[in-house]
Each structure stands twice: as C-alpha cells, then as structure tokens.
Amino acid sequence: MSSAASVSPSAPGTPGAAGHDDRKVPPVADMARIIGLSIPAACLPDVVANTALLQGYADLLGGFALPDDCEPAYEYTP
Amino acid sequence: MSVVTCSRGAALAIAADVRAGRRSAVSVVTGVIADMEIRDTRFNSVTRILGAAAVAQAEEVDRAVAAGKDPGPLAGVPFGVKDLFDVRGEVTTAGSIVLRDNLPATADATVVARLRAAGAVPVATLNMDEFAYGFSTENAHSGTTRNPHDPARLAGGSSGGSAASVAAGMLPFTLGSDTNGSIRVPSSLCGVWGLKPTYGQMPLKGVYPFVASLDVVGPMASTVEDLQAVYSIMAGAPPLALPDVGDVRVARLGGWFASNISPELTAGIDAVMAHLGRDRVIELPEVARARASAFLISAAEGGNLHLPRLRRRAMQYDPATRGRLMAGAMLPAATFVQAQRFRRWFREQVHAALAQADVFIAPATVGVAPRIDQPTITLDGKTVSARANLGIFTQPISLTGLPVLAAPLAVDGLPLGIQLIGRPGGEDRLFAVAGELQRAGLARCQPLDAGYARKDSGC
Predict the structure, then answer these.
(1) A47 vs B327: CB contact, 8 Å cut-off?
(2) Is A38 close to B311, i.e. CB distance below 8 A?
(3) A57: distance to nearest CA of chain B, Å?
(4) Interface residue B210 vs chain A (CB under 8 A)
(5) In this complex, which of A61, A71, A76 lies closest to B401 when CB atoms are compared?
(6) From first to last of its 459 residues, what are the pLDDT tens digits of chain B?
(7) What do you get for the CA distance between the two ends of chain A, in Å?
(8) Out of B136, B158, B165, B298, which one is annotated catalytic?
(9) Active-site choice (B182, B188, B232, B398)
(10) For the purposes of burial, counting CB atoms within 10 Å of the CB of A67, is it exposed (0-12), middle (13-18) or buried (19 or more)?
C-alpha cells in the first residue's frame, strides 16, 4: 500500500488506512453525514448490517465489466 | 377445504348473478364484509373495511340493474386493495404510521377507478410490508398476515394481505403491487393466481411508490378467468384474444432457477413441461448479478424516496424497514449507475433468450411458506432471512420488466407456485398457458371457504 493510499479516506468495502479489512464495517456515520442523515444509536447496528449487505451486492456487480457503450437504463422499456 | 369450481370464474359468476338480478350487490357486499369481520381474525389480512362506502356503491349497482342500465362487467363484485392504492375518502398508509396524518385521497387510483367503473366494489384495504419493502408481510404497525393454509406460516409479501384474503376465500380478487416479487411470492405461498404485468403497462397514478424503476401493479384471483378479466379492465384494454396454447413455445429456466428448490417443486415443473410437451431448458447468464442489481436499485430509489422523512422521524418507521431504507439512501451513485447499466446489458441477454421461447417457466419461491416462528429459508446450504430472500427467483426477473403470471401448482399439502414469464406485452400467451394448466388440473387455487360464492344460484 502506498503512503498516498494510506492517508486517503477509505471507500466503503475497501481496505482502510489502518491496514485492516474494514469491508464489514462500512463508515456509516460518515456516509450518513454526507446526506444529512442522523442515525439514532439504536438503529446503527441494523444500518451497518444492511450497508454491509448492499456492499456485498455492489462488489458482486462491480466484478462484472460492462462495455463503455452500455448506457444506464433510466428510461427502461422491457 | 372447499374448491371454487365456477368455470367462468368466481368474480365473473357473482357479476353474472348481479346483472341477472339473481343476487343483489348489497347482499354480496354485506355478506363479504360480515365474513371478513368474523374470519379475518385468524389471518390478519385486512387493515380497514370500507363498510359504508362499499354498501353505498353496491346500492348504486342495484339501482342500475333495476333501471335496466348496464352495471358493468364486474357488477357487484367485491375486491380489496393493498394499502398503497388510493381509495377516495381514505388515507393511503402504504402500511405505515408514517403517512397516517396525510389527508384522505380525493380520488381513486386509476386502476381502482377503472374497476369501480366496471361495477366492482372496493370493500377493504389489505396488509403489507411497510412501504412494500419485504417479502413476508410482517408489519410492526399492523401485525403479521398469516397464511390461510397454515396460520403458523407466513403469507409472503409484500402483498401478503392481498394473497391471503383470496386464499381464505374472503374475496374473489384483490390488487397488489410487485417491485421485486411482491405479487408473485405471496401468490405462490398462499396458492392463488397473480399477475405482474409488463413494466410500464399499468397506470401508477394514485399508487404509493416504492421503486420507480421496477414498480408494477396487478391482480390476484382464485381463477385464471377472473385474473384475466380484472387485468383487462385495469389496463383499460379490450379482453385479450388468446393464442392456441399449442402455438406457444415454452421453455424452463435452468441454472440459477433449478437450484435450491424443493423436490416437490421440481416435480411440479416436470409435470407442467411434460403436459405441454416441451423439454427445452434455457439458462440466463449472470442471474446473481441481475438479482444484485434489482436489490441495489430498490435500496437506492426506496432510500432516496424516504430520505426527507428519515431525517426527521426515523423512529416512526418499522425497524425492519428503517435500516434497509437508511442503508439504501447512502448507496454511492457509482453503484446505482452500475446497476442501471447492468440492467441494460441483461435486457439484451434476456431478449436473445426470448428468440427461443415465448414463455419461460421458473419457480416462484424455493418451497412452501416458512414458519412465522422460524422465518428463514435455506440457500446454498445456508440459513438466511425469509423476509429478505424469498424473492431469489423473482428479483432477477423484475429487473427485466417482463410480464409474469404466478400459477399455483395443484399439489397435496402447502401451496407451491411457479412463474410463467412472457415477452414484453405477451400477457396473452401467459394466460393461454395458465388456462391450459388450470383446465388440465396441474394448477389450481383452492380457497378455504369461498363465502362470496355461498348462494342459491350455481356457477
């Protein structure tokens, strides 16, 4: 890991600056702050678990290379 | 267990009797309401009974009949709606106390209005997972809907009240919504017919949204004939002309869709394929990623929809929904866009497969309804949450937007269901196959006790 990488904020699901795999502990508080969401303490474990679940699906999807000309299906017609 | 055997459909039989003056709409509606008040204490499928308004509309139907006017093709037929359809004069809760202070709807949802114009009478709103985010109809506010075929088991969701009220024989048809399988899963677990029409085909005006990219509304019913009639009226289209079933090319989906399913379900699909004289098996590529995409799009769009309320009053939400919506609201844009791009790619693969068949057959769930006290299913040898995973076979198909008809297999024991998956706009072929399966006795809905059919005139 380069020094530049080690001081950068870690993205969810990527190895963190501390050198350990924080894939299972997404930085939920930071992510929530960015969108102006305050997570009650009682809800935090559930939100963390669901965020980790979604990250697992995102990793699965991210492992598939799409051609550059494959556009998002915003206006979808079956 | 009694069986509704009306060849023309339970709802259509009621309408025929009302139109002919053999039964009054008021007697039908009041009878159904009394039946629900007594029997739904076991199932918890109903959230509100629309008594006064329903009786008033039934009186209008009877006046039309008495005056010699056409009361409509569904004259006097009672139905229920998942609690996310606007019904004029009622607050649309979407299964949550979060919306309970909203003003009552000033107009019906478009599909409700079309059914009402056809003479059908909305008599109840029906239970659901909060904001349609779940596959189990376990609702912290309104309780868990129980499966009429075994009240110790889940009805499935999120349109669980809609499926259970048909399975119990309390209503001949109901309306549900399907984003990731919310019509197909409960239809299958409760053993009723259900239709998720082609994405974009049904008007969603007056339907509380969940995931705009995937949301569809459709009917659930005890017979194929009723399902088809209600579908046509909801779509504002003339009755379908069905093709000869022998001309419909049917294939079963293999791979992902042949794994993790019960032996009884495999045997049921084998029997269906043998009866139809087809043996083609098609494997769709990257189904796990298609499911992941539907999961991620749902989380992101659902989370974004609720973000303003989650910021202010998160604790009012059902705990089972709140954490999922919050996580979804925080999903990075890169992930959401990737899922939408994958959807485009997957569409091309599915259309290539559709060149080989008109209808795909696949399981709707892995097996029978899970127990309420043990709400789990087994996938790849692991025990996982039923609420989040019952849609393992429906979510990938949701991503495609294809129409799907959920067919209840004729089995001994608890219900099992299959998906008949068609090409875009290919509902006619789905109904042709479904009608043949019903006629051949391979698929059937067995309502517990069809109170609405109890009368002196036969079907």
Answers:
(1) yes
(2) yes
(3) 5
(4) no
(5) A76
(6) 344 444 568 999 999 999 999 999 999 999 999 999 999 999 999 999 999 999 999 999 999 999 999 999 999 999 999 999 999 999 999 999 999 999 999 999 999 999 999 999 999 999 999 999 999 999 999 999 999 999 999 999 999 999 999 999 999 999 999 999 999 999 999 999 999 999 999 999 999 999 999 999 999 999 999 999 999 999 999 999 999 999 999 999 999 999 999 999 999 999 999 999 999 999 999 999 999 999 999 999 999 999 999 999 999 999 999 999 999 999 999 999 999 999 999 999 999 999 999 999 999 999 999 999 999 999 999 999 888 899 999 999 999 999 999 999 999 999 999 999 999 999 999 999 999 999 999 999 999 987 787 653 333
(7) 45
(8) B158
(9) B182
(10) exposed
Q: CB A78 to CB B402 under 8 A?
A: yes
Chain segment A17-36, per-residue pLDDT in tens: 333 444 556 899 999 999 99
Q: Answer whether B189's CB lies under 8 Å from B156's CB.
A: yes
Annotated domain spans of chain A:
26-63
**Residue tagged 């984003």 (tokens):** B179
- Chain B, residues 287-326, CB within 8 A of chain A, namely 288-289, 292-293, 295-296, 299, 307, 310-311, 314-315, 319, 322-324, 326
Using the beta-carbon criterion (under 8 Å), do A47 and B335 form an inter-chain contact?
Answer: no
Q: Which residue of chain A comes nearest to B215, CA vs CA?
A: A76
Q: Would you call B68 an interface residue with chain A, using a CB distance cutoff of 8 Å? A: no
Which residues from chain B sit within 8 angstroms of residue A12, using beta carbons? 332
Paired strand residues for B143:
B139
Q: Is B133 on the interface with A (CB under 8 A)?
A: no
Whether B158 is catalytic = yes
Residue B20 neighbours by CB under 8 Å, 6+ apart: none
Interface check for B143 against chain A (CB to CB < 8 A): the answer is no
CATH number of B10-248+406-453: 3.90.1300.10
Structural domain spans, chain B: 10-248+406-453
The residues, ordered by sequence, that sit 6+ positions from A68 with a Cβ below 8 Å of its Cβ are none
